[in-house]
Structure formats: structure tokens, C-alpha cells
Design brief:
This protein folds into two domains: 2-125 and 264-294, Medium-chain alcohol dehydrogenases, catalytic domain (Quinone Oxidoreductase, Chain A, domain 1), CATH 3.90.180; 129-240, Rossmann fold, CATH 3.40.50.720. It is built from nine helices and 15 strands. The chain has helices spanning 42-49, 53-56, 120-123, 126-140, 156-167, 181-186, 212-218, 247-258, 275-284; strands spanning 2-7, 16-21, 30-40, 63-64, 68-76, 88-93, 103-113, 147-151, 171-176, 190-193, 203-208, 222-227, 239-240, 266-270, 290-294. Strands 3, 5, 6, 7, 14 and 15 form a six-stranded mixed β-sheet that branches. It has a six-stranded parallel β-sheet with strand order 10-9-8-11-12-13, with helices on both faces. It has a three-stranded antiparallel β-sheet with strand order 2-1-4, with no helix packed on it. It is globular, with a radius of gyration of 19 Å. By secondary structure, the protein is α/β, with parallel strands linked by helices.
């Protein structure tokens, strides 16, 4: 048996509850993992709220929160090739299986080994923020010296995009609230405080992590526009990020972290017992950087 935080119906935070469940049994293409750390993401509360039922509306209750984790392989299905019991891994969970839990199932093809030197908490941020940033920049394929505006630089995806863009020789500017200025400049980005002035200028590309009216404000500022959360970007002549979710992408990000070229900028670590608090902060949209559940706490 293992403890998990999930929900038995769609709704607000008050539907969340801890419960015990038997350790899941991996299917042929899955791996059972003892979770060491799990990332906390906006999609977690959107799934719980029922706002994206095309993703989890078909999954039986109870569903467990969370979609990314790092941990140790306990068992592997016969088709989960390249993964063995005892491996240190990071990956994406099956929808509904969740990662706010002591054990969970990860998709074999979306799970990768990680270097022994990589902390569990860092590894838990790779599947969502890390590979999203990689996908965005690969999709843009900008030349060295090109200018990039990151709309919403202070979140986990935004700060990862900024670092990887700088690593590729791009000139990065980020938008955010006043409190995000120090974070942006720490990673070499120019900063526009959208609470104090209008976002203006011309850029070779814009990456939007905010959506809504903010997306519409920055859309005219560049030839290329990619959004990571708001699919209405296509109505503005832009593109939604094409997600790969494959082992090769996970391995690339792990290597960048191990080499010191990408810092997930973890601003808060919480024990599983306080997962409610971590998700509430993300849901409030006041979190900066990345929040992680550390099951060793």
C-alpha cells in the first residue's frame, strides 16, 4: 500500500484528499516507480477541476494529482525496454495514476535514466518545465543573436526557456511582475515589468507562458509566436508548442542539468503531507520558479 493525494470527483481544492492505494501493477509498456520527488504544475489543478476533460474525463476515479516524477524503478513491463529494477529515472505518469504519491506508474517510452549526480528534486522538474523549454526552442529554431521575448519569465517553464535560449546565443527579454525582476536578471535576461509599463518592442520570436489577454498583448511584437498553455494562439497566427514527451528529450535535459547549463530554480520543496499547500500556491499564480514535492522530507 502507498499514500497518494487525489480526488474522487472534479472540483476545487476541497475535493482533494489523501488515501491509501495498493501499489499499481505496471502494464507491458509501463514502469512502477517509488517516487522520490514530484513536480507541481498548473495542469495538476486544471485536471482536478475538470477543465481539460479531453485528457482525463475517461479515467476512472479516484484520480491522483501530478504528472511528473523522479524515483527508483521497482518493476518494469516487458515492453518497457531499456529500464531495469533499481534504475534512477524521471518521467511522465499515466493520466490519473498521478505523482503526488509514494509509488506510481510511469510511461516506459516517456521515462529516462538520470545521472547519479543529479538531485531527485531537480530530476522531477525535467518532464514538464525542462522538456517544454527544449521543445519550444527546437520548434523556433532561431539563429544565434536572435531576440526572444519570454512572456511570463518567472515560472518554471519561463525560466527554463530563458536559460536554454541564452545557452544557444539568443538575446532574451522577459516579462513579469515586479517581484520577478531579480530572477530574470540572474539568468541574463532583460526585464519588462508589466505592472509598471506597457510591453513594447520588436522581437524575432515570442514565447508565451501566460495566455489570455496577456498573450494577445504580446502577439503583435514578433514574427514568430509560440504558446505553451493557451491553444487560442493559433487564432493569432502563432503556434502551440509541439510536445514530444520522449525519452531522448528527457535525457537531453538531464544532461544539460548535470552539466550546469540548466538550473530549474526550485523555490520551494514540500513533503507529501503538504502537497495541498504547494498546489494552492501554484493555483494562486503567485509562485515563482518551480515547486517540488520531496518525499524524503
Amino acid at each position: 500500500m502507498s499514500t497518494a493525494l487525489g480526488y474522487r470527483e472534479f472540483g476545487a481544492a476541497d475535493v482533494q484528499e489523501f488515501f491509501d492505494r495498493p501499489d499499481p501493477v505496471p502494464g507491458p509498456a509501463e514502469v512502477l516507480v517509488r517516487v522520490a520527488a514530484a513536480g507541481v504544475n498548473p495542469l495538476d489543478h486544471l485536471l482536478r477541476s475538470g477543465h481539460v476533460r479531453e485528457l482525463n474525463g475517461h479515467v476512472p476515479f479516484p484520480q491522483v494529482l501530478g504528472m511528473e516524477a523522479a524515483g527508483t524503478v521497482l518493476a518494469a513491463g516487458e515492453d518497457a525496454t531499456g529500464l531495469e529494477v533499481g534504475d534512477r529515472v524521471t518521467g511522465f505518469a499515466l493520466t490519473g495514476a498521478g505523482t503526488y504519491a509514494e509509488t506510481t506508474l510511469l510511461l516506459g517510452e516517456s521515462t529516462a535514466r538520470i545521472p547519479d549526480t543529479l538531485p531527485w528534486t531537480w530530476a522531477a522538474t525535467i518532464p514538464v518545465a525542462g522538456t517544454t523549454a527544449l521543445d519550444v526552442l527546437d520548434q523556433l529554431d532561431l539563429p544565434v543573436g536572435a531576440s526572444l521575448l519570454v512572456n511570463g519569465i518567472g515560472g518554471g517553464v519561463g525560466i527554463a526557456v530563458a536559460q536554454l535560449a541564452r545557452d544557444r546565443g539568443l538575446v532574451v527579454t522577459g516579462t513579469g511582475s515586479t517581484a520577478k525582476r531579480e530572477l530574470a536578471t540572474k539568468y541574463g535576461a532583460a526585464f519588462i515589468d508589466y505592472t509598471a509599463s506597457s510591453v513594447v518592442g520588436r522581437f524575432d520570436a515570442v514565447v508565451d507562458t501566460v495566455g489570455g489577454e496577456s498573450l494577445r498583448t504580446v502577439a503583435p511584437l514578433a514574427k514568430k509566436l509560440i504558446a505553451v498553455g493557451d491553444q487560442s494562439v493559433t487564432e493569432l497566427g502563432g503556434e502551440f508548442v509541439h510536445r514530444r514527451l520522449d525519452r531522448a528529450s528527457l535525457e537531453r535535459v538531464a544532461e544539460l542539468m548535470a552539466a550546469g547549463r540548466l538550473d530549474p530554480h526550485i523555490t520551494g520543496t514540500y513533503p507529501l503531507a503538504r502537497a495541498h499547500d504547494a498546489l494552492a500556491l501554484v493555483e494562486s499564480r503567485h509562485a515563482s520558479g518551480k515547486l517540488v514535492l520531496d518525499l524524503s522530507l
